[in-house]
Amino acid sequence: MATGCPVLGSEGVFGWSKRILWFDLGRGEAREWRYPGEMARDFIGGRGFAVKILWDHLLPGVDAFDERNLFIVAVGPLTGLPGPNTGKLVVASKSPLTGGYGDGNIGSWASVALRAAGWDAVVVTGAARKPSVLVIEDDKAWLEPAEDLWGLDTFTAHDRLVERYGKDAGFLVIGPAGENLVRFATVVAQKGRSGGRPGLGAVMGSKRLKAIVVRGTKKPEVYDEEAYRRAAVEAIKAVKTSPNYGFWMRQGTMMTVEWAQEASVLPAYNFREGVFEGYEGISGSYMEKVRVELRSCPLCVMACGHVVRDDEGMLVELDYENIAMLGSNLGISRLEEAAVLNRLADMYGLDTISLGGTLGYALEAAERGKLEGVDATWGDARAIARLVELLVRREGVGDKLAEGSMRLSRMTGETWYAMHVKGLEVSAYDCHAAPGMALAFATSPIGAHHKDAWLIGWEISYGRMDYSEAKAEKLIEMQRFRGGLFETAVACRFPVVETGISLEHYVKMFQAATGLSYGLEDHYRVADRIYALIRLFWVRERGGWSIEMDMPPERWFRDPLTKGPLRGAKLDRDKFTELLMAYYRLRGWARNGVPLPETVQRLGLGGDAVELARRYAAGPA
Ligand code: PTT
Q1: Whole-model pTM?
Q2: N or C: which end of the chain has fewer CB within 10 A?
């Protein structure tokens, strides 16, 4: 196979259609943007395209709910090609929850269809006058009325959309939470795939966009068909013959419940503890006994959608994060009860992690006499479900809960047990005794999400109370391939992180798909560029930066664990700050967390980025 850069501004482009669809909802107008080839070379796609577009085209300081905010759906060169788990897309926007860069990664037929329609991304701007559906069919895009769908939950809306547009289309839908501007509303696909934790469903809601429907008929062009086929077949074989594959297919991410309990990282009672007395009732082993179905994203070879019947007899797709945040974190020890909350989140279009974090905060604040109107307590699943209904409708105390835990804690005046970073609630790993994972949450580019670096497994074997630079190094390595390669190429990271297949499979697939001779180091450089630009986007939106923005929740420094083998453990603030400085140093960022101008220049970011870095970066860390 020849190598080189056939994509760069020339004919004979592979891996990209080099077209982005801009859709102005206010005018109902579609426009095609043939973006420059350097954008593909430097940012690849997915998250890379999203941040580049937001940086270049979003007016700084615009509110996330302002109609000028941009809602972006982006795929990458591997999306939709046959291969292990390539049915993914990235949704991104300025977040209404954090005020910074926000994105999420969703498995959906819409990803495959978007590639087949010949678009690398869709940028939605403006706001529709009435509830609408954006329909994209190959080269055409138009708005259709959706007043009859407004107010419907995502399951019902999905069924109506299938009736109207057919089974062969892909759908991205919001529920009442997005319509009512709940700040952690998500975008839902396939009745159980949910993404865009930092409130991307609410951005769609603010634009009166109920759904995006995509249908495409073209076959994405590949640079070297035979080499691609070989690389994809090898990768699939490696997944299916991996020693972890069998257990993964039995439990998927639900296997993590028992592991987390053993490792004392299972969040319990709003992250007061890392162990939960009722963990067996919500475990992967229990789930195996009651599972009724297994679902997956398109083009997936290691399905993770374990479906059970909840307490009300309804089907719901489970994941570890959902069950830990809506189970142990709220004191609930029956899977079927936690599953009801999980299903409500899917139907209303709410992020389960932020929902669990916000409800956990609310239960504790009510217990402390700081929040009125919370008629529920730990473990009372029915009463908690009623709170969810209030939250979605923004009624009574629900109006406060719909703002998320950061804003809620400012209302009560007690902020130290609000479990978030930058406004995004932490995912389900307690870090009283895990400074590396706390650093991963602290430096994740969207707020406290584990997606860019699940450091905790490695950290436990390395030495959990260790604060050495090795942890910052390992973290950056993970952020480079998880937050870089997989979020730009765009494909699911599970084949690599769960079955342990080599990243080289993806490097080969990428080379064969695009003709670009990128090795892992090239992908890492792209990842570093994207990380710097995302950080600069945050700095620009906030008019500066300080290390407080990169600190984990106060609780982990202040309240030691009182149960389990790690009783007494908590984080050390001075040592953690040193670890954060080591991270900044390794990234070439200043001691206040802003990329240094020379780093920005070295990464090839433009003059305005360098200028911003000059203005806000303090001295070296
Ligand atoms: C993701 C976050 C996660 S991460 C989970 S469980 W996970 C929660 N799932 C939710 C859900 O379900 N319903 C709901 N209403 N809210 C939910 N919020 C939470 O959202 C998901 C899988 C999973 S399951 C993970 S880890 C991996 N994530 C990937 C990623 O981020 N990038 C990538 N390239 N590949 C990934 N593969 C895996 O995909 P967000 P999904 Mg999700 C019911 O979107 O915003 O990134 O938040 O998208 O299609 O459901 O895939 O243990």
Answers
A1: 0.97
A2: N
